[in-house]
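Let us work through a complete example step by step.
Step 1: write down the sequence.
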Amino acid sequence: MKPNAHPRTLGLALVAAAVVLAVPACSSGSPGPAGPAPASAASSTASSTGSASATASASPAPSATVGTLISGFPQKLIPVMPGATVVSSSFEKSGSPATVALVGTIKSPASAVISFYAQALEAQGFKAVPGDAVGSIASKDFLRGENETVNVSVVEVAGQSTFTVGANVAAESLK
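Step 2: predict the structure and record it as tokens.
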């Protein structure tokens, strides 16, 4: 095991857990992005589940896959950053809002990841919300209209960035 593998795994788990916790919070109908989840809740969720899975509603669990994009993944909404490796992806379009998540890694600084997704999202009409971090984690929220949200969070360790992009959008936006 590499000496830096544990912090990277912990960082990935925290970022993935933050997205899982943010997805139900963003679907509450409030117009702004959800606030950060307490670190203790994020780490206990990540360690007890071992993966990102939504359990906030009675609807069927979102479809997810590891190591590749799930079938039907809306790459127009959330493109895979060139050079990135997909760690996991999920997509649930039958809910309201539809939810999409991508976890990836890339040998680029966190600022480059945020910049790539900011450009991709702003080209689709999303507006950046003030704030660039949650604690020491690079994190950027985007809003389109009153109810469509996207969060990009990045943990950088030794030149390797692990990022999570999570979106809650109207199903008709996924055409």
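Step 3: interpret the result. Helices lie at 5-26, 39-49, 110-122.
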